[in-house]
Amino acid sequence: MKPTPISENIYCLSIHDRRTRLFEGLWPIEKEGITYNSYLIRDEKTVLIDLCKELFQQEYLGELKALVDPASIDYLVVNHMEPDHSGALRAFRELAPQAVILGTPKAVKMMDDFFGLKENIRAVSDGEELELGRHKLRFVSAPMVHWPETMVTYETVSQTLFSCDAFGGYGIPEKGIFDEEYPDLAYFEGESLRYYANIVAAFSKPVLNAGEKLAGVPLRMVAPSHGLVWRKDPGRIVDLYMRWSSYGKGPAEKGVTLLHGSMYGNTEKMVASVKNGLEAAGVPVDAHDVTTTPVSYILPSIWKNQGVVIGAPTYEGTLFPTMQLVLYMAEIKRAFNKQAIYFGSYGWGGGAVRFLKNQFEKMNWELGETLEFAGQAREENLKEAYEMGKRFGKLILEG
Q: What distance lies between CA 150 and its chain's CA centroid?
């Protein structure tokens, strides 16, 4: 994609990644893709903000050269050292040895750790400002959003926040990079939530801390490293991120995530009854078969909903392993303080509930009703499942 002007003398260089199968080696993005957004400010001093993944550095540097001679760049701002942002750093340094590289003190150390770079690098402090001419940058430390060296950069004249991973999302904007180019933003908001749940959720408190530091700062544009540039309504993505972050310490939305998985179909026969009961209560329901849906797509639902229903059999004296993996990932991402119920089949003895009680202690989840049955579900079990779902739905709505 050719460089796009986003404000007077400010440009976005956006690389479209349709080649990576698993972002961070974990999260599937084959269908959605992802962008690596870098930004150039031309003034008395020329500044480049962030880079891209090494895999795309030749494409990226070609775009950069079409816009500016790298030998004329005065500064490179490195907001974050994760390789999808900094991967082209060594190649950039070869083209622009004169550019002063700026980052937090921890980022400076990482530049040596990752690339062996030590020369012409300067650490900036929280709140430090850099005059470019007409434009002025302010560096704001944002540790653990989502690495310890992270900062964001604010340009005071255009009132643009170059937010790095914060306020980013999966997905490639095919029509253009701005939010105003999409009448329906539901897709990009959904992919931002998935990105948040996959990448940022474990660090919700630092996100809230960063939000507090930026409160009151006028924003005309939010320009993250991944996804849309929010120019029409920059407050929209900020508000969403702040709301999602708040779920890390308090109640989430009044909805239910129904997780189910089955070995031979016995537990699966109960799913419709439970779902019907939930829907009869009027509660929104997201259902996911954990045996066919990657956990990347399940975590956003768990994160945003207060209620979780787990339907899975006992497997060798414990919970069905595929369901265990989902709960383990929810624990890693700190999806805490949920309310849950359980149903499932067993062969010769239970064990799933015992696992859930132990696991939920780690996550501060409250386990309510459980419904275990031997072998196949009978008619009375199906009725019990419906009523249990209905009761749970009402509990979530009234909570």
A: 15
